[in-house]
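Fold it.
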Amino acid sequence: MRPKKNTAVFEAVTPSRPEPPLPESAFASGLRPSFSMAARIFISYSQEDKPTADAICATMEARAYGCWMAPRNIVAGQEWAESIIEAIDACEVFVLVFSPAANASKHVLREVERASAAGKIIVRFRTEAIQPGKSLAYYLNVSQWFDGFPAPVEQHLGRFSQTIEACLARKADGITDSPGPAPVTRSRAGRQWLRWTSAFLAACTILTAAIWAIWGRGGGSSLNMDAKEKIRLAEIACSRFTPAGPPETGLAWTNSLGMKFLPVPDTNVLFCACETRLQDFETFVKETAYDATSHVHSMGIDGWQERGDTWKNPGFQQSQTCPVCGVNFDDAIAFCAWLTEKERGQGFLLPTQSYRLPTDEEWSQAVCLPPEPGSIPKDKSAAITGLYPWGAQWPPPPRAGNYAGSEAWDDGNAPQDAIIDGYRDGFRRTAPVASFRPNKYGLYDLGGNVWEWTMDDFDPSSNDGRKALRGAAWQVGHQIQLLSSYRHAAPKTSRYTGGGFRCVLDFTATAAKAHH
């Protein structure tokens, strides 16, 4: 095992079923569903709505966009649940055929929950003018919708296909995360759509709620769209969201960046369900020209060193939904201040509401720790033994989180100190947020992925500028560091590719400055 290096940066004390017959709509289009086609679109539906789902699938595959539907695409011998989860994680757009039957379906709810947690673009194809029930409403409050009525449904599919193409236009390079051969060439209509979509991306920031009200009207059969319709579709491609109103204490809420916030008992804040994503931080930097690129330490075969890596390119590949890493405490505070000012100006936050980092005590509540001995993070660190974010089992059970499993050696770069014997999570470095199971409060990655900055000093009496970080990271393999009670200490100015952050929403204006 290689010795630890650069301890100033890291203080070490991640039943098969037969294939169903082809739908009539597929034969009518002259296209047989391609099971090898890269599945960029996942179609969720209740069995009663299968004819509508088949029609949507046939329309999109006629335009050379791969679709995934159950049971059609279930691989022989693979578990249904596993197949569905993998397909949702790999897709780019999640289409929900939304009807009274879907509204009442527990299977549809589970699929929507997974797509929402994975940060997928969700588009509802409504078959009736109904609103989602309470369970679905939580996950669909930031989704886009399309009215596929009055009958016949076929008259709306041309316009709906253009809506989906606008969503897929975000991936202008045509690369998909799903396994299989290279994506097929776009249709001529798709290429034309991409050209004009780019012209409207800048207009996304000036859209108002009034435009969204127009979007809610019924669909017509004409494929000719006016400028407002094109701007609306471009906004879908941008994944911009409009909160229904300011957040309320104790109620789940989603902000303008699509960051979901959830209540945690015995706290006065809402916790972001996920760590701050690369796409969130990138939006901040683009709007402010904030520079967080200097003195980033990244891991190599020679340990933790400055190599010229940055949060933009931390030395390994990341998707937009991976947690931002290589950012320090001050960078996280700057992000929270920017987002607070931005959303207060937009009317999404009240003057008494603000974003900040969680306190050390709030983080302990979020990870479900019992009362801890000690009064400061240093004294509390590892004081409660035998409890981990996944429970009491050691080593971690499969899919417990993104830690230093055996996969950490796959590219020849050793983890910081050790790996977890017998554990493999599938991610050598960071994983997309929500890739693993949430805890009982609905919070993801409280264990693993990246260390999370808190507001508190590790040892306030020392005045050494070190902050307490929680939750371990992708390169951590020491059992003690994986304890829910463990605190990692690092200078507030340290930028390292094992560190990121999670936001909370505070409901008192003065609380944003606490511990800072």
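The chain has a mean pLDDT of 79.
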